[in-house]
């Protein structure tokens, strides 16, 4: 029987997915986070890199690969709240319908500051939405990275990604992962690779993913160069963007994940992870 994968194929997973060779009997589709969350939960796909909050909400049924994540320690550059007033004065925030995790993170951060602006799903660029009555706009993924650079760039020989301003052209860009780091000092895990507990991935797929990740991270400059062209961004930006990610769901990433889970989904079922690398291959 075919095993179906669903990939959120944002640039941030290019170091894992670009060189992935699917083993025989595995197919893949792609989509944005909310589409892949739904596809996994309705069993239209068997494994997907999903918004970590959906993994937490459905922890009774799902399990995640023990060593795959899309996480960062500090800024992420592609999960951004664009706003024209200070955070404490925001009234109406537009939320992208592509995201579950970043919306949940925004809610936790706002609640932590005692703020309760109106949150509404609305599509469009940050600039468009800020011109139509919203004073804040949450954007994720490649378009958020591009829009961030459009507001705070360009990089010059004297500047680095971390020295770019947060406010330019009348717009402030608040990086939600940076806010999480300021609050907790821990990484933020945006996505995990999850599947239904009764339907784990074939070991050959997990093995192929590990090999693809080793290849991608080993040749990160090449991956960044190709994607810089596609995104229309300087290579320097995409290189920094990619090497900043944590793809191995290490102990600090799990710590950030469990901490977020307690805040965002109190009373959730215990989070479950598959067998550690090495065990999977031998127990197959
Ligand atoms: C870092 C990002 O993380 C993504 C954000 C997600 C969400 O907001 O639901 C889901 C999966 C992640 O891969 C990004 O979109 O830029």
TrEMBL record:
<dbReference type="InterPro" id="IPR003773">
    <property type="entry name" value="Menaquinone_biosynth"/>
</dbReference>
<comment type="pathway">
    <text>Quinol/quinone metabolism; menaquinone biosynthesis.</text>
</comment>
<keyword id="KW-0474">Menaquinone biosynthesis</keyword>
<protein>
    <recommendedName>
        <fullName>Chorismate dehydratase</fullName>
        <ecNumber>4.2.1.151</ecNumber>
    </recommendedName>
</protein>
<comment type="function">
    <text>Catalyzes the dehydration of chorismate into 3-[(1-carboxyvinyl)oxy]benzoate, a step in the biosynthesis of menaquinone (MK, vitamin K2).</text>
</comment>
<keyword id="KW-0456">Lyase</keyword>
<comment type="similarity">
    <text>Belongs to the MqnA/MqnD family. MqnA subfamily.</text>
</comment>
<dbReference type="InterPro" id="IPR030868">
    <property type="entry name" value="MqnA"/>
</dbReference>
<dbReference type="Pfam" id="PF02621">
    <property type="entry name" value="VitK2_biosynth"/>
</dbReference>
